[in-house]
Design goal:
Layout lengths: L2 H13 L1 E5 L2 E4 L4 E5 L6 E2 L10 E6 L2 E6 L6 E3 L2 E3 L1 E3 L5 E4 L2 E7 L2 H10 L10
Length: 126
């Protein structure tokens, strides 16, 4: 791992970016995380319907992108088949019978969202 990759991995770990798989939280700490049946993947699933190199999540230009790696059964995000997709916190990733939730607790996003929320004002109808 070179210095740039090490710095990127520290940044993603600090941001609190992870996948929830079967009630287990898996932190995304690398600039590229591979998923599939092959033991050489970062996240390995023992499902016969998954391809050996099924998908990859990459951190590029401050965004997380899910790539299908020409899998046999396909990769789905929120029920739609994808080849490439930007991920948002709360997205449901599916392949075969596996469901994974992508979570991004990036503090910058949280600050922006709280700034846009406004109080509800009720005016009485007389």
């Amino acid at each position: 791992m070179n210095e740039k990759e090490f710095t990127e991995s520290q940044n993603t770990a600090e941001q609190g970016v992870y996948l929830i798989v079967n009630r287990q939280m898996i932190s995304l700490v690398k600039s590229k995380t591979t998923l599939g049946r092959h033991l050489g993947n970062d996240i390995v699933f023992h499902e016969e319907f998954l391809s050996r190199h099924h998908a990859e999540i990459a951190y590029e230009d401050g965004k997380y992108i899910l790539y299908d790696k020409d899998s046999t059964s396909g990769t789905f995000v929120n029920g739609k088949k994808i080849e490439k997709c930007f991920l948002n916190s709360g997205d449901l990733i599916s392949f075969a019978n596996i469901n994974i939730m992508f979570v991004n607790n990036n503090a910058k996003i949280q600050v922006k969202s709280t700034g846009t929320t406004q109080n509800l004002r009720m005016t009485p109808n007389f």
